[in-house]
Design brief:
The protein has 119 residues and is of the alpha+beta class. It is 17% helix and 27% strand. The strands form 2 sheets. The protein has a 4-stranded antiparallel beta sheet, with helices on one face. Strands 4-5 form a two-stranded antiparallel ribbon.
């Protein structure tokens, strides 16, 4: 990681590791998925889905996502870049959505049918 970009991300941002973030154009009334950011190893990748491209997604991918105090998080930061995309960003015509698969429940968090506590 290039430390010239600033200190590590706050712990709150480090709690969840997104795998897939979709970018939707919501300006036309019907949401249309126009780009996808995906974690590939330790780096984020961008796939443009619309035939006309997506300048906003390309801009973030090429120049990073600005977070607190003008710090930019780049695709080379992998999970940090995807977390930065999911921070509140004022957008009028686009929406970012965490589309990461939901991890399966852990065995200790599931109660068997008919089981009672303390038995």
């Amino acid at each position: 990681m290039d430390h010239r970009l600033g200190p590590p991300l706050p712990l709150v941002m480090a709690a969840h590791t997104p795998i897939v973030v979709g970018l939707y154009d919501i300006g036309s009334g019907r949401p249309e998925r126009v780009a996808e950011f995906r974690l590939a190893g330790t780096r984020a990748e961008l796939t443009i889905l619309g035939p006309g491209g997506c300048r906003l997604a390309q801009e973030w991918f090429d120049h990073g996502v600005e977070i607190e105090q003008a710090r930019r998080v780049l695709p080379d930061d992998g999970p940090g870049f995807l977390r930065a995309l999911l921070q509140p960003i004022p957008l009028s015509y686009y929406q970012l959505v965490d589309e990461s698969p939901v991890p399966p429940a852990t065995p200790w968090s599931v109660t068997a049918p008919g089981a009672a506590a303390g038995r």
